Task: inverse folding
């Protein structure tokens, strides 16, 4: 009996000892078990390269050290001890919490009745060069972004700047619903004095209240032009009227004035051009530069002009100085509206130190409205096609004893080929005169 009791006591002591080994040396606290798992998982990911060889249970035991909170039961469940993944991931909150940014202000503001948005200058972009007293049409494209329909009782009104037209009010000729686009046109005349001019216009509603463009509708539509006074009194100066023409190349439509570095070509008005014979002139010249690829072209179509008996088309053509690889073809055409395009002449030019003077009697076209078409084609693979038309103009009388040319039949305007736009030229056009400078003061 005594032996049995001793044996039982021994088994009890051994059991208590084994039980003591299973107890944790310090309590495990999980005020928020979910947070501990999230924190532990993040730390394990950061420490995994430094603690290679340790088991996940050992890492969790290390992370589960006492925190200032209420202890949990002494025996964690097996699922907790082996870090069973949570049913759905818990996002880790940011270390620094800042208030969310305010939503962007809507344009237009909600409830604004009359409000417009400027979309584009359809004609006469800012800085367009025009001859003095030239008539032109300015067209703005705008969008109704208000909540009210613009009726025929709405109008465009002149509000400030240079007075370039007889009319100060242009009533709408149709309704424009919210969200619709409309082209608004005004007929203007360039001032007689050379300079930089601006004219400002705003819309007016049925109550004659002005509104415009911009977030608050307080900005006016404007037109800005630079007026050039021709050196001589020609009947029609195609140089100073350069931006009245529509310009394009085989790469597409071109702005006026253009960019001398554009791969699509350009047309630029020169005030003091230096020609291929190194002669510097003090009258205007058109620098017409087609793209650099062979067969590329640039073309300008001028508005109709009424020819009188005795009128001559006069110009001098060639290559600008410091363009040794210039090899181009000049083509002069005309069109009477409603009829086919006719060719007046065609000339091949290279930079050989010699220019060509052209004098064509236009008497056979007297009393007709004529659109002149100027085209330059590049004939070199990799040249600098810096071609010029020096003082292209219609004059009363010519400068050379020339005969009236017989127009060739049914000449056509070049069409745009499908060849890609050539790469931008790398050579610089050094020595080429700059564009006519803008006046220093604004009237």
Result:
């Amino acid at each position: 009996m005594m032996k049995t009791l001793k044996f039982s006591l021994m088994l009890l002591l051994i059991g208590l000892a084994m039980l003591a080994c299973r107890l944790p040396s310090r309590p495990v606290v999980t005020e928020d078990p979910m947070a501990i798992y999230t924190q532990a998982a993040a730390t394990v990911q950061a420490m995994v390269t430094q603690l290679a060889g340790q088991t996940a249970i050992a890492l969790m035991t290390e992370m589960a050290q006492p925190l200032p909170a209420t202890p949990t039961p002494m025996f964690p469940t097996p699922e907790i001890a082996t870090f069973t993944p949570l049913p759905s991931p818990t996002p880790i909150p940011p270390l620094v919490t800042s208030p969310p940014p305010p939503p962007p202000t809507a344009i237009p503001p909600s409830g604004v009745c009359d409000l417009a948005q400027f979309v584009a200058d359809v004609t006469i972009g800012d800085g367009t060069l025009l001859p003095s007293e030239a008539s032109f049409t300015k067209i703005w494209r705008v969008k109704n972004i208000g909540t009210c329909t613009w009726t025929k009782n709405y109008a465009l009104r002149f509000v400030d700047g240079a007075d370039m037209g007889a009319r100060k009010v242009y009533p709408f000729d149709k309704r424009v619903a919210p969200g619709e686009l409309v082209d608004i046109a005004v007929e203007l005349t360039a001032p007689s004095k050379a300079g930089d001019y601006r004219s400002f216009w705003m819309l007016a509603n049925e109550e004659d209240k002005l509104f415009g463009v911009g977030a608050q509708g307080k900005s006016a539509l404007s037109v800005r032009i630079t007026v050039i006074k021709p050196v001589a009194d020609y009947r029609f100066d195609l140089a100073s009227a350069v931006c009245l023409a529509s310009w394009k190349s085989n790469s597409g439509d071109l702005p006026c004035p253009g960019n001398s570095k554009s791969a699509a070509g350009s047309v630029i008005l020169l005030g003091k051009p230096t020609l291929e014979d190194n002669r510097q002139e003090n009258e205007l010249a058109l620098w017409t530069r087609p793209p650099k690829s062979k067969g590329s072209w640039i073309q300008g179509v001028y508005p109709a002009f009424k020819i009188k008996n005795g009128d001559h088309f006069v110009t001098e053509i060639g290559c600008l100085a410091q363009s040794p690889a210039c090899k181009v073809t000049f083509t002069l055409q005309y069109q009477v509206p409603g009829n086919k395009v006719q060719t007046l002449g065609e000339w091949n030019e290279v930079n050989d130190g010699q220019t060509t003077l052209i004098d064509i009697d236009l008497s056979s076209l007297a009393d007709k409205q004529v659109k002149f078409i100027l085209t330059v084609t590049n004939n070199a693979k990799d040249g600098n096609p810096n071609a010029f038309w020096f003082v292209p103009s219609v004059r009363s009388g010519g400068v050379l004893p020339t005969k009236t040319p017989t127009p060739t039949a049914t000449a056509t305007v070049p069409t745009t080929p499908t060849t890609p736009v050539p790469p931008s030229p790398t050579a610089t056009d050094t020595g080429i005169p700059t564009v006519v400078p803008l006046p220093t003061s604004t009237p």
